[in-house]
Structures
1.
Amino acid sequence: MKKIYKVTGLDCAHCAANFEAVVKKTHGVTDAKVNFLLEKMIITCEDENAAQAAIEAGKKAFPDCVVQGV
Amino acid sequence: MNSLSKGQKHLLWRIIASAVVFALFYIIDAITGGLGVPLSFAIVTISYVTSGYDVIYSAVRNIIRGKLLDEKFLMLIATVGAYALGDFGEAAAVMLFYQTGEFFQSYAVGKSRRSIKELMDICPEYASVERGGELCVVMPDEVEVGEIIVVKPGEKIPLDGIVTSGASWLDTSSLTGESLRREAKEGSEVYSGSINLSGVIKVKVTKDFDNSTVSRILELVENSAFHKSKSEAFITRFARVYTPFVVICALLVAFVPPLFVGSFATWLRRALIFLVISCPCALVISVPLSFFASIGCASKHGILIKGSNWLEALGRAKTIVFDKTGTLTKGNFVITRICPSDSSDDDRLMSAAAHCEYYSDHPIAEVIKSAYPHINAGDIEGFEAISGCGVLAKVAGKAIRCGKASYISQYCDVTVSSNGVHVCKDGEYLGYIEIADEVKGESASLIATLHQKGINTVMLTGDSHQAADWVAKELGLGSVHAELMPQDKTAVLSTLIAERSSKNAVVFVGDGTNDAPALSLADVGIAMGSLGSDAAIEAADIVIMDDDISKINTSLSLCRKTNSIVRQNIAFSLGVKLLVMVLGTLGFANMWAAVFADVGVAFIAILNSFRAFKL
């Protein structure tokens, strides 16, 4: 399944790339893309739990960022 | 000021306060002739903390989490290092300068986000739908296929559909980039995102919101950012190794030279310079921003680019291959020449041809009939079409034949074996009518411009050599391949692709109706006149919404400009950073230079990217 989120509070595009890497590594997530300019993230994952876990992982690595469902 | 976010305003005030304290410190220091270490330390620290407390806070938090190589952490090390060496002033100044740079950078990012939003502002906010005799205002995605929506003057058409009643003029510029107004009356197809200008129209919805033109355009533009170009992929890979590389350099500079030449403090100071420039932000932001800005700008002009990889490739185009019909030509036939034989005249020739072709439904027959309005249908007694040759009709007791020269020559003396419709009436040769596809007005100037830019042009067509040569001569095309079956077109294209060097690209331009294989085979496939054509939008890499062939040149210029902006930004950012690193190692650059090389360069690179927002 594909989920789209709005991600705000990332400092720069480099952070966004790192955020993407963290989310991608989460178990159950097959692909993740974070666009710094659009403040948008697309996660391809197995189920809702995987998506939630991915977001938690991202938030843990980047405490200032805010992830909202679209 | 109003365009600043709350966070940005806050940061700005902190920077100003910090700068004031910092300036006061230097003035008082100069007047009193030296404040002494404890007092200087105190005042400078006030300035330092005012501007940089959030940097310190997140750096410390990151250290606790074991994340060491982030920009803020490195800034903290650099400034704390400066403190340790007794350069209080420098530490505070670096933090102040860094935050100023961050402010400008965030301002620039904010501005580009707003520009992007503006570009995307074609989305309709609501739909007025007729339900149970009443008009309800709902979100466009709540309307179902088959429902009737009402669009008043000044409103955006929310969903694709067919006009069932009313008439109006529409502004489709947000879709096609063309300010040309389109007429909408009963039965016309209308596309979401167009603006209704004059009258109230009722529209029967044919596509739900997600499949409507406006959603597809927005989706395409947004997703384009995820199709990364080679430069972007390079930058992402580069960024991953850049920071560790610079930090290792810093460690080497700090600890290796002192082993041989001593003076640890000097080398530590130089090493700190490395830490300040260790963030690759300038590149990581400016490169995708340039591409995105350019894609946004193109979509404003009715050119949809599906990804920055295609944009980059089009900028490298060396050969552009055109399909003839519907691309370089209008796809509708016109009479180009009427050539009566010596014994006949224009009127006799046209009259005979029009009567003879009266019952034919061939496109060429339609052209002849519409060019001769005085047909007396009662005179036509018999009609027969001889497949692949021509037609035969009995008109007022006389046998008239129209067709190819090879067919007509069996019945009378054809004096010129030209390409066209030859006419024979009861054994008498009346002459021939030359019919060709009309060339688009802008085609010739486009081809000339492309040649000026050093691009080869090739035309592919299934038409006869004669027809193809005529168009090629008219337009000044580089080369022509005629009488091609659909599979031959892809074969020609494959040869061209095999022959090109890996730096160049072969582009195919078609109308998207039956050239999907060619569109996908080419390095870049461009579909023309695609408003409302899902198949074309699907198959092509770049989609031009209207028929305007000159947009090929517009796209090309934009792509070339974007590629050069990207190259400039990469060269400039890396160049300055490298220069500062070398000068820093040799002792010629201070921390101020390093901060400029970090945030200053990012800011300048982003400003440079802004140029891609405009053609």
2.
Amino acid sequence: MPTHTFTLNGEKVTVDVEDDVRLLWVIRDMLGVTGPKYGCGINVCKACTCHINGKAFNPCSVPVGAIDEKDEITTIEGLAKGDELHPMQQAWIDRDVPQCGYCQPGQIMAAVAKVRQCQREGRDVDDEAIEEIRNICRCGTYNRIREAIKAGADNM
Amino acid sequence: MANHRFAPPKAKEPGTGLRAPVGRRKFLGYLVAAPTLVVAAEFTRQTVFDGPSASAAPIPSVPQTPEAYDLLDLLRDASRPTANLIRIEVNKDGTVSFALPRSDNGQGIVTSTQMIIAEEMGLEVDQVHVTLADARPELLFNQITGGSSTTFTTYTPIRVAAALAQMRLLDAAAQVLQQDVRTLTARSGLITGAAGRVLSYGDLTEAAASPVNEQVEVVLKPREDFRIIGKPHNKTDARDIVTGKKCFATDLQIPDALPTVICRAPDLNGTPDDVENIDEVRNMPGVTDVEVVSTGVAVRAKTFGQAIDGVRALRVQWNDGTVHGESDETILAKLKAAELPLAVPAGVGETVEHSFTFYFKSNSSLETNSAIADVRSDSAEIWGAMKNPVTAQAAIAKKLGLPQSAVTVHVTQGGGSFGRKLFWDAALEAAEVSQTMGKPVKLMWTRADDSRQGRVHPMATSRIRASVTKDSVLSYEQRHTSVSTDFTHGLGDAITATGARAPLGNLTFAESIFELTQVTPYDYGVSTRLLNEVEMGFNTSSMRNVYSPDVATARELVTDQLAAKVGQDPYEFRRQFLRNDRMRAVLDAVAKEGRWGRSMKDGTAQGIGFHTEYKGVSAALVEIDTRPDTVNRKIREGVTGPRVTRVTFAVEIGLVINPRGLEAQIMGGINDAIALILSSSLHLTDGHFVEASWDNYFYTRQWNTPPEMNIIILDSPGDEPGGAGEFGLAATCGAIACAYARATGKVPEYFPINHKDPFPFEPKPLVPPIPESPTDGLRYTY
């Protein structure tokens, strides 16, 4: 069986699994890292949003065989620096964003990447930028998500 | 300060002596024999709210049932005989533990329960541990999470137990310190004596424990002393959520419970007949087991990805489903045929008559139906987010052929429910699969399963006829006709669930729920509301309410038409016809804050709606933009359409435990309402639902949500909480529909308004039943 090695939340990991198994299941079912959630499996709901080398992506739609040994994958579990929360996580708590919480790991990872993208491109983190975020929140806490992204961006 | 309820010496009658609580009602609590302090409580009937005030409107309608006794009362009264089994334990570390017999799916009831206990016991919120109780059949009626009833039903018994616990701790401290109990103060779980000596609740829990079960009278903290209840509090699981630690059913690591997915039929509720290649699939990578079960063919594998691959490879012959060959049109025709007649003949005054259709809607939450089951020969252990675990336990036991007591049901935190998790579909299936395979399974419905085969909000029609003269409404009749809503979950116990399953039992139950929840809040003369339901083989359940959003949408649209008929402004008309001042207060609040009547550009408009339920009153004022540039704006694989640009919502709902939590629930309801009226529905075609995922079913997204939202919570004189979870929808649905009608000049006849538009997507195949996961995810990084 093929062996795959990559960095997950700062640690080198190696798994034995077929190339075509999507990375989400490798992370969740084999490595036991369950922050990224399944919500559709077809890159629509974005509940599994993580970072690859600092950029947002959806592991439900990436075969593990497409991941390189040099790739650094970050899930919500790897966003904070130890006990020190990332500013976006803190903004989420301050604004009391989550309801059920199922989509929120993906929402936060998407928000962080969107802010970084805006910063790279010299754009404001405004409503227009936020409306590019496709993550679904079925509890409908969108308005607090907006506030939190803007607040989090100010500290990034 | 907690000395308002310092206990008199034990031998005395409570309520005597210096600390007699003058005029304060007493409740019965129980000390439970245990090595540390354990208390329990039972209900005593409390006054809820004053009845409706006399109405000054022209032709008062007779009082309607929910104004005197509504669904919340029913749910509380059903829980009354056994609520004394709710227990609070004081731990040796000074914290307090309570297992809440309810299911939290994001509505924040764990947080509000912590607040209630902390308030009554003089603790900080984080000193109270609240977990979700396993299924407890001895609770009979008292373990259902539905009808927005949790806080209403549990508020008093939890307070009684908490008050008793603190009373005992203070008594124990008085004995230890050899001081008069009246000189002690309690704060943050510490009791301070006159000389400054401090004892913690943990120090005292053994001393305060009771060697025998004993009934004790207790009084509750008066509202004016509240320091936690009524103040905004953030959700206590927020840190776990934002760090990825919060654990949902599929996140649990139960030994050997491997990922399991079911291959389902193309028809709704189709069943497997024959599998052509079962051994081939058993030999696929990662696959451990493939077995035929009653709802399909179950594949268990090392990863969910491999289980899905196994499902996709199966070649199955299927039996027809329960609505084989049916479509939206055939179902609607059956509903029309079942509509109850309108009684007031047309022609008395001027008649306004409208008929509306509400199509099927998915109550899929973001966490799909999922459960873990470990079934052995003589016992079973089940994990899942269940709002109704006792009935689930009975159903699972029956399915497995085990006594109910041999089935342990653990209630996990849920990733949204909206009514879906009143049922236990995944748990029942997981139990069957585990028994068939002889192994533990972690069963998860895929999104396509959840969307196509999961429970739905039933299709319904609402027909209204009203007769109006120059300045009054003489009659108002509403006939709501619905595909039957499944109430076989009962009230959380086996008895009412069985009753609902009896012939016509479900219809009686449905009619009761309708009668207990629906009010026409306007003085419309002779006013009747009747429900008829038709059982047609669908998997249904409530969805952030059963009837109200649809009933209110129809009622508010007709109300605007009535206002037009008499030449009045929609707000002024409602104001005049609403039945009391409490109702008018929320209407006035949104009109003022939302600037009703401000000048709006062509193609944009305001709309206003009102709704009363859950012991509360609510109003919404929305602004909508239906101009072509807005409607036709492009979003990849997204539906845009008219945009609700601004929502002002006012609610008054009795005592509010956590205003921040209430605001969150209302916000969610508003975003749901936008989806229900404008964008999201299921289409039934040839015996199946077309929509298979979120790129087909258009729940509100960031690009649909209103840029401006203002939620106003009005102070209430009420001293009991109402229900929040579903309250944001009905008034908002009505307001959006009215705004849309005013912006476009056309009263919509069906909802959502885009239901008959061409699909903006290519329907996903029915066979295999799960779409393949893409492989190009790295192309969309940002």
3.
Amino acid sequence: MSNLFNIDIVNPEQSFLSKDNVFEVVIPAVEGEIGILKDHIPIISFLKPGIIRVFSESEEQNFYVEDGIVEFKDNTLSVLTSSIFDLKDADKNFVSESISSAEAELSKDNIDDQKRFLLNHKVEVLKSISIN
Amino acid sequence: MPSLDDLRKRITSVKSTQKITKAMKMVAAAKLRKAQENAEKGRPYSEKMNNVILNLSKSITDKENAPKLLVGTGEEKVHLCIVLTADRGLCGGFNTNIIKKAKSYFEKIISENKTLKIITVGSKGYDQLKRQYKSYIVENISFKESKNINYFDADKVGKIIIEKFEKNEFDVCAIFYNKFKNVITQIPQEQQIVPLNKDKNDKDDSSNDNDYEFEPDEDEILSNLLPKNISTQIFKAMLENSASEQGSRMTAMDNATRNAGELVDRLTIEYNRSRQAAITKELIEIISGAESL
């Protein structure tokens, strides 16, 4: 019995990643990280800024996402996101730009708590990326 | 009868026009391939998005409190129409077809005494609509600067729509664009995006009764998802539109090149004839002059 399942990551422009040999995926869902293994019950959730970790037999891949929706059904995990990049080819300038724009947004007074939480989280994640 | 010189000039001018249309056709053909590829690549995203929304809306039990973007405001007074056209002309009936479709919809709205609001995306649509419907146009967006169609542009339009919806500025929203069928056929489409058309749900209600787990609850996911869906739909429309535009331009330019060829042939025959006529005339003059001596 194999314990592998499929993952499809799509962004609006194209299909970003499609694999059929992953055994675990960790996604930064809005209420905390979820680790998904084979035969997980069907789930729909959305993402907060964070890192998707895809574990396949041969390698581990990490992607930064800003937002998106995940659906798990029939052993296929679909991730819909408009902003994603592989941590391996992360652009330093882009990361630092994103941090500063998020911080600028944070310094505004008229943002609600939820947004503040998300932005804070985003800055945190991005900073952890730029250190590595 | 035009003189020989005039004819020669005309032939040269038609020939150079033909060169231009031929070049445009080839450029359009190259761009078409890319646009088509992009449209195909973008399809999985919007399909998956639709699926998720379908599954979500099925599991919503409390219809009364469902997000308004899904079920509508309960009224149908103010209609917002997004007309997506190209930024350039010379593409056959492409822009005109969308406008025609949109206009018949506008007339229906106006005759029913409802309020009409128009947003045009792409400068050609604005040019054609401003004569007749200037007072209804609330916004005019153009993405001339962006070389390729990207999601950010679509998202900008989507955000404008959401913003207007939250301010209760409209009840129903429809988009107009050309659906790419093949190079020769593009079908003008009218698609309602707010509230979402739900006739699809009724059809395959029984097919998948998956019990999903939701985190957080359905309502929250839906209210997060629906605005994204609007941007996605617009993005899809923009991709279809760009493929259609190139296809339409290609056929139009192909026709123009062929027409120019025919015209050149006809003009050449006319040129040769009148040259021959002039020679014959001169000969007759010489002969009859010699005879009279």
